[in-house]
Input
Amino acid sequence: MRLSWEVGSEILPLMWNPGVWFPAIVLLAYMLVAAVLWYLPIFGWLLLVSASAGRAVMLWAALPPLGLMFLEEMIFDTGHFANLLVDRFVGWTDVALSSSANGEHTMTIDGERIPFSSHLGDILSPAAYFTSTGLWLGLIVAGGLIWATVLVRRHRSEV
Output
């Protein structure tokens, strides 16, 4: 795999530039927080299933969503629940990162041109992310699922 700038220079000297390290750390920390908050409903669901299912936990974790998708498709001929799950699994970058990078620079990775910005403010969009309804509804659902997990574990008797 060959990484190069559009002008043909190598990317390796840029990686050792001290001015790149702080923005890279800020970007990674922001993306870590954004991903954890976005995936929290999935973690809450898996916690609830692990607390309530005695055996075959992964089967119980996967079957209800698959069953709901199947029933929705059969009854209503729509795929809204499937789209909701796909958005919850892979849609966080669309909300957390800005796609309005001005494209003043491009990078070529294996022949594919990728635009990027040299300014961190052009990439991050924390205001849009932390005010998105998808994030806050997901956090409410995650809180409910974790609360239900605590109740199930508290009232579960030892066998």
Remarks:
- Strands lie at 3-5, 105-109, 112-116.
- Helices lie at 12-15, 18-52, 57-76, 80-90, 92-96, 120-123, 126-130, 133-155.
- The chain is about 65% helix and 10% strand.
- Residues 1-5 have pLDDT under 50 and may be disordered.
